[in-house]
Amino acid sequence: MSNTYLIINFGGPRDLQEVEGFLTELLTDQEVIRTPFPSFIHRLLFTRIAKKRALKVIPEYAKIGGRSPIYEDTEKMAATLRQYRKAPILTFHRYLPKTHACFLSAIKQIPKDHQIRVFPMFPQFSYATTGSVALFFSRNLCGQNLNQLSWIKSYATHPLYLNAFEQQIRLCLSQHKLKEEEVCLLFSAHAIPRKFVCTGDPYEKECGLSFHALKKRFPQAICHLSYQSQFDKQEWLRPYTSDVCKEISNWTQDRKTVVVIPLSFTSDHIETLFEIEKLYLPSIRKQGLTAIRCPALNHHPDWIQAVLTIIEQEETLTNQMLLRHPTHSCCSICMPSCCICKKK
């Protein structure tokens, strides 16, 4: 059977005019923002919220060049992979609605005898990222295309992913003339609401697995894991990166340099270029420390080689197997400490 390859990513506004549409698509996704409202009410409410939030976010995008680099980076990755694979490679940008019609048209042209191997640019699985795309596909693709999809669910501890990440960190240390035994490595992953984990999302566990695997590769550094980019006032995964940065001296053990590493991000975008660069690093520097942002994997050569291998050789799942089946309570193990159950 021949293969077609599909690279999926968040997408990001390609200019300031796309910010509101991007936020609307993101916030009206009920895999990302989960409310008890019917879908039409949820969409009406969060379309209004997106419009207001865009007024705050547009200046942030303006400070990082007026756009997110995710779209271009994903397309560049696909172009690079085509040079090696000599096979059809499509891209899908979840929250760029202007690109969806072109994608849906292109996937319909895939020959019936092709397997479509889907590679998410999300190393750690969450129903709010990879699962959201699977749900979009289940609602928008025909049965034939759905049956062709063959998903790589995640690769949080894949040796090639870890190798690429390790080399990116070592490159960052080398460029700043830093030694491993001199630094603190703050791995910052994107947060999700705690209730997602309490009801079955494996994301926190997979972030922990990635963190501990990378920590072992830097035994002389002081390593810490935190979570960033909370959206509302509900409980999210902790510790929050913002809090850790404010109290950084509690765990640096007198080391003077902190390198902030975007654990769950494979491409730089607003969470790294603005949130880490403009918010977290200055918070650390106010305490008299040197703070450095390690770039995401982007187009590191080892990362490209990792994608080429993982996309071809890793075991796959069907689209249906990545869909969330809503639950309303926690298991007996989680229940005693669960923030949701305590409220009942």
Automatic annotation (TrEMBL):
GO terms for molecular function: lyase activity. The keyword Transcription regulation does not apply. InterPro entries: Ferrochelatase, Ferrochelatase_C, Ferrochelatase_N. It catalyses: Fe-coproporphyrin III + 2 H(+) = coproporphyrin III + Fe(2+); heme b + 2 H(+) = protoporphyrin IX + Fe(2+). Its EC number is 4.98.1.1. The keyword Iron applies. Pathway: Porphyrin-containing compound metabolism; protoheme biosynthesis; protoheme from protoporphyrin-IX: step 1/1. Transmembrane segments: none annotated. Fe(2+) binds at H190, E271. Its main location: cytoplasm. SUPFAM superfamilies: Chelatase. It comes from the Bacteria. It is found in: Cytoplasm. Keywords: Cytoplasm, Heme biosynthesis, Iron, Lyase, Metal-binding, Porphyrin biosynthesis. CDD domains: Ferrochelatase_C, Ferrochelatase_N. It is an enzyme of class 4 (lyase). Pfam families: Ferrochelatase. Belongs to the ferrochelatase family. Catalyzes the ferrous insertion into protoporphyrin IX. This is Ferrochelatase. It comes from Candidatus Rhabdochlamydia oedothoracis. The gene is hemH.
